[in-house]
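## retry 2 of 3
previous attempt timed out at serialization; input unchanged, resubmitting
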Amino acid sequence: MGREDPQLKLRLTEEMKEAVTEAARNNNRSVNAEIVARLETSFQITVDPKALAQAYEFTEDLRARLEKAWEQLNLDMDRFNKDVEHFNNSRREMHLDDMRRRKEREDIIEEKERRLHERERTFRDQIKQRRAAIRDEEARLREEEKRMADLIVRLTQREAELGELIKKLTKNTVGKL
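## retry succeeded, writing output
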């Protein structure tokens, strides 16, 4: 870009001028080069509504899958509680049923208890893992939603800035014609 290129007179607030000057200094550019670079960048940014809709659908799908997993976890816990209740009932019946075979039945009970405790530990570990996975997924979704919201806010701000800039440029250009 040379001095022969068209020039444009631009009015800025003091704060905006200071911000542009600071950005130009940080990017090792002239104020004019900073403004031109930012304008060029703004014309390259596009928002794909289809991609945004797909991201939203994906988020909703994940949310539905998490809810389904949570429901399954609750069903598994109910089944586990019924198993424990059934075990306790069986244990009482065996003790009352026949005192002579007490030792034999105690051995059976001990084996069942060991298995039940192993199963309980397994269930609890699975529940902890599922809860942790759900929490991680929820956190990831919240971050993704926040990131998308921030992106929308930035794009909206950029769109407003460009609109204002275009209005000013149009007003100045029309005024000179």
